[in-house]
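Re: that chain you flagged

S.,

Sorry for the slow reply, it's been a week of failed gels. I finally had a moment to sit down with the sequence you sent. For the record, here it is as I used it:
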Amino acid sequence: MNHHFILIVEDHYELAQTLCEFLETHGYVVDHARNLEAAKHFLIQQNYHLLLLDINLPDGSGYTLCQWLRQERSLSLPVLMLTARDQLDDKLQGFAAGTDDYLVKPFDFQELVARVQALIKRALGEVTQKILQVHDLVLDHQQKMVIRAGQRIELPPIQFKLLQILMRHSPNVMSKQDMVMALWGDEEPESDALRSHIYHLRKLVDKPFDDKLIHTVSGVGLRLAFEPLV
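Prediction finished late last night. Pasting the structure tokens below so you have them in one place:
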């Protein structure tokens, strides 16, 4: 069984403990950080499936952590902001910083779990569009079919899922740890497994065609996008 890991960033100790206990009863593995500094330490050391983030923290704003996550770390893990702020401007600022969802305190714990489950499923590709297209590459999720420039491409299941993840995030960059987490959770089979799948995916999807769609972003990860020659 793959465990789903959640980091709670919340300075209110009693609320954080209640959240931890509640989510653990639903099968999640939960860590707790009380400030931005501790949260960054956790996020550097551990891969998570979801971040539950308070806005008002002792050493700064949750918006700052969200921006750091997206811009400096290039991580796309889902962020659910928990806050007492219920104004539209606060919500818009949260979405601009990169949050995926927003829940105003006080909230119902069953609603929290429903949102957590939905965000994690979407991030892992369990909820996705039926048809994805980037340039001349088409992926049909329902038919498990990949076509490029009119030619059908047969992909093994892991490589199909990897391509689906990259296409769903296109044109954004996906880090290695995001790809590993989406494919295997916390049970990556071996250190070179991802590299091998990327190599074979490129061989099938890119090599026979004029335009390369899978691009390495040095020190960050991969992005799938059409980049026409200028």
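What I noticed first: Helices lie at 13-25, 36-45, 62-72, 88-97, 109-123, 157-169, 176-184, 193-205.

Talk soon,
D.
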